[in-house]
Amino acid sequence: MATAILMERGTLVFLIAALVLTAKLTKTRFSMQLQKPRWNNRIYFPFITHGFHSIPIRLFFLFSVMGSVIGFSFNIFFFGEWDGMKEIVLFALAFSIVNATLEEMLWRGTLLPVLAGQVSWLYALL
Questions:
Q1: Which residues lie closer than 8 Å to 119 by C-beta, 6 or more apart?
Q2: Within the chain, how many helices (H) and strands (E) appear?
Q3: Radius of gyration of the chain (CA)
Q4: Claim: this prediction has a pTM higher than 0.70
Q5: Which residue(s) pair with 4 in the sheet?
Q6: Helix, strand or coil for residue 53?
Q7: pLDDT of 43-86, one tens digit each?
Q8: Which of 15, 98, 102, 122 has the least CB density, counted as fewest CB within 10 Å?
Q9: CA 41, CA 25: separation in Å to the nearest integer?
Q10: How many other CB atoms are there within 10 angstroms of residue 105's CB atom?
Q11: Which of 64, 61, 45 is nearest to 53 (CA)?
């Protein structure tokens, strides 16, 4: 079942390829947004009581990974043994990498720039 789920998410490659081909055939300019991250740039987020705050992307990434590890660790301790959780953790890791990469390439890398070229960024985001 896990293989079927990963293969289903992998079919996003065909959708991305179709969108890229369509953009090429219609001579629509787009970028896949595959630049190297600028780890020192900052992410801004609001607090209700304090207004906006920011942290460097590298710290945001580190905190995100630590949160995932803590979440999985809790499940390992809750369900008991590592042997029973090994398949779930490996599937979750593979799914996260495949799904996140392909969805970002599809939505942010392909669809959003093409839509924003046709309408405003606000309508493209909506």
A1: none
A2: 6, 2
A3: 19
A4: no
A5: none
A6: strand
A7: 887 877 777 888 898 888 888 878 877 776 776 667 666 666 77
A8: 122
A9: 35
A10: 20
A11: 45
